[in-house]
Specification:
This protein has one domain: 3-Layer(aba) Sandwich (Aminopeptidase), CATH 3.40.630.70. It contains seven helices and eleven strands. Strands 6-7-8-9-10-5-11 form a seven-stranded mixed beta sheet, with helices on both faces. Strands 1-4 form a two-stranded antiparallel sheet. A two-stranded antiparallel ribbon has the order 2-3. Strand 9, helix 5 and strand 10 form a beta-alpha-beta unit.
Length: 201
């Protein structure tokens, strides 16, 4: 589906229906599109795979992790062009919409720091017991993985039931992500939306 608006009400209603915005961008145009893929990629909160090498990095104290301390910085990091692509689907309007959701307490970030520099992180939207991950970035090796581990730990501690990552990637498959049917996803989404857990306290 294309069109619609990036208002708070529109975005939140889309999430409640299992739909998320993903602008289609090329050199000359930007079209606001909405997706509900089948199958849907999720991370089971007891199924994250942490390699031995990453475990050593986590124990080594090379990174510091914070939550909701630099949401705008994380969005900027995620929106920066990748090495293999000069374009980004995180348009200025989309970024502004998520910053607004963050100010309203519904979008959250996990930041990873090294020597007081933001080197990685992720952001997403929490509704009920569902966290929908939107994007992540890394400026040094493993920084985004550290953010992911910290996020999953937080979701488990706060008794979330569903971590939606929308679409599978080779990186997330190696971290233990799985795919479920859209029908199963919507069932679990409906259950998760009934929870009264809090991401940020």
């Amino acid at each position: 589906m294309t069109g619609g608006q990036l208002t708070e009400a529109w975005i939140l209603e889309a999430y409640r229906r299992g739909i998320f915005p993903w602008p289609m961008v090329d050199e000359t145009t930007s079209i606001l599109a909405w997706f509900s893929p089948d199958p849907r990629a999720i991370v089971e909160l007891d199924g994250l795979h942490v390699s031995r090498r990453l475990e050593r990095r986590l124990r080594g104290g090379q990174f510091q992790v914070t939550v909701n301390q630099d949401f705008c910085g994380v969005v900027r990091g995620c929106a920066a062009p990748r090495r293999d692509d000069s374009l980004t689907w995180i348009t200025a309007d989309l970024a502004a919409a998520y910053v607004n959701l963050h100010r309203r307490g519904m979008a959250h970030s996990v930041e990873v720091w090294q020597d007081d520099c933001l080197v990685g992180g992720l952001y997403g939207v929490a509704l009920g017991g569902v966290f929908s991950g939107e994007s992540m970035f890394s400026r040094v090796r493993d920084a985004s993985k550290v953010a992911l581990v910290a996020l999953v730990s937080r979701l488990r501690e706060r008794r979330f039931s569903l971590f939606d990552i929308q679409q599978m990637s080779p990186h997330m498959a190696r971290m233990g992500a799985v795919e479920i049917t859209r029908r199963e996803y919507l069932r679990r989404l409906a259950d998760g939306l009934q929870q009264t857990v809090q991401f940020d306290e």
